[in-house]
């Protein structure tokens, strides 16, 4: 299916509340707020950003901060701050990297590992609420389109 490319008039971002950038930011902020609210209501003392780092470690434990930053699409100072918070909460630990004395490997603690099922369930709840009324195909299309927009601006 070859779609006709939009014209400059089609992309004109006014009125502001109908512009793509506004809609994306507004949606991302509300989704983050919903996630943080669900975490708080469940009595879990972490944020959505901290949840994201834990999620990456559940996928592959023992990553370096640089690897985590790249995979999370965050800058290294932000990830370093998040890791310090998670370490202070006893959810991760730092171990020297045997391959590079200047670096560390981030490992889940038993407490960090034990949160996996509960936090993944909360993530599912959050996305179910956010995607209410959308079909599986619509969700797949939305993800595909968002990834294409992201690639265009990267």
UniProtKB/TrEMBL annotation:
MF-aspect GO terms: DNA binding; DNA-binding transcription factor activity
InterPro entries on file: ArsR-like_HTH, HTH_MarR-typ, MarR/SlyA-like, Tscrpt_reg_MarR-type_CS, WH-like_DNA-bd_sf, WH_DNA-bd_sf
Parts of the chain that traverse the membrane: none
Annotated keywords: DNA-binding, Transcription, Transcription regulation
One Pfam entry name: MarR
Listed GO biological process terms: response to stress
Domain called HTH marR-type: residue spans: 17-151
Entries under PANTHER family matching the protein: TRANSCRIPTIONAL REGULATOR SLYA (PTHR33164:SF64), TRANSCRIPTIONAL REGULATOR, MARR FAMILY (PTHR33164)
Protein name: Transcriptional regulator, MarR family
């Amino acid at each position: 299916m070859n779609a006709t490319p939009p014209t400059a008039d089609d992309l004109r971002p006014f009125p502001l509340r109908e512009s793509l950038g506004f809609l994306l930011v507004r949606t991302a902020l509300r989704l983050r707020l919903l996630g943080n609210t669900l975490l708080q209501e469940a009595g879990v003392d972490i944020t959505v950003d901290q949840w994201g780092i834990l999620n990456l470690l559940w996928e592959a434990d023992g990553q370096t901060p640089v690897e985590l930053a790249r995979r999370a699409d965050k800058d290294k100072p932000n990830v370093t701050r998040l890791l310090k918070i998670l370490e202070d909460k006893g959810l991760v630990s730092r171990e020297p990297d045997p391959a590079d004395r200047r670096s560390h490997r981030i490992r889940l603690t038993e407490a960090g590992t034990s949160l996996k099922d509960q936090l993944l369930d909360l993530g599912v709840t959050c996305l179910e609420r956010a995607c209410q009324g959308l079909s599986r195909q619509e969700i797949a299309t939305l993800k595909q389109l968002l990834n294409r927009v992201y690639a265009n601006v990267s």
